[in-house]
Design a protein that fits this description.
258 residues; Rossmann fold; six-stranded mixed β-sheet; two-stranded parallel ribbon; globular
């Protein structure tokens, strides 16, 4: 089958997960990275192909930047797989929201999965995820999705995904990443920040009105200068680490036949 993958992946984990699923399903894959750039114009995916869309969960929702970019992909009853990646707390309404977005754009969601990754703000939660067991679960998810893709999809019932409508109002923690004097001013974070929140003249700082706390600047910094720090972060980290230390497992949902 021909597959198009669409992903918003600031720390590259969602990209890895979506890529693993796509590779399990086909060798003919076209990638669309919407993290830094919106697609140019409307992109229509034919009915006989497959779309896989992956997003990280931000405060229980699809990242706002990703929503408008995903809307530029249109289907014609095209089968789609929705993937939400979250940091071991919960995916809340994000997977439902993503599925709704795809359905509104003419796609038929045949499966949806919520997978766990290391938390991008509190990295002691979900450390080393996804791990070997997670990838085995992804294989099961891909194989079951493949079976549905190759059956008569006209008799499929709408997929049921947990969540609420209206979607939750996302909260925000007033903590932001910053750099130190170990910064070499290489410009990597300036270039790759999805929101343009870091300026070349002052790369150790961040524009708090633009920053979405995605963690990309931390991941790409070659000197490990950037991180979340400060008293507010330390206190929030202690609370979060304790509350969400128990391991969560992937959850998978599949369309069923009438």
């Amino acid at each position: 089958m021909k597959i198009t993958t669409v992903y918003f992946s600031a720390t590259y984990t969602t990209h890895r997960i979506v890529g693993h699923l796509a590779k399990r399903l086909s060798e003919e894959v076209t990638e669309c990275d919407i993290t830094n750039n919106a697609p140019i114009g409307e992109i229509v995916i034919p009915k006989d192909e497959l779309l896989i869309v992956g997003i990280p969960v931000y405060a229980g929702r699809v990242p706002k930047m990703a929503v408008d970019r995903i809307r530029q992909f249109k289907g014609k009853g095209t089968p789609a797989i929705a993937v939400a990646v979250y940091g071991n707390r919960h995916y809340d309404d994000a997977l439902l929201e993503l599925s709704d977005l795809l359905s509104e754009n003419g796609f038929q969601v045949i499966s949806a999965g919520a997978f766990i990754a290391q938390h991008s703000i509190f990295p002691k939660v979900g450390t080393h995820r996804p791990d070997a067991d997670d990838y085995l679960q992804m294989n099961v998810f891909a194989d079951e999705s493949n079976k549905i893709f190759h059956k008569n999809r006209e008799k499929l019932l709408p997929i049921h995904i947990p969540g609420n409508r209206p979607y939750k109002i996302p909260g925000s923690i007033p903590i932001y990443p910053s750099g130190t004097n170990s910064c070499k001013e290489c410009g990597k974070c300036v270039e790759l920040c999805p929101t343009g929140a870091i300026q070349k003249a002052t790369p150790e700082e961040v524009d708090q009105t633009k920053c979405i706390k995605c963690g990309r600047c931390i991941v790409v910094c070659p000197t490990k200068s950037r991180k979340f720090r400060g008293l507010k972060y330390m206190l929030a980290s202690l609370k979060f680490n304790h509350a969400y230390k128990e391991r969560r497992e992937p959850e998978m949902f599949f369309a069923r036949y009438n």
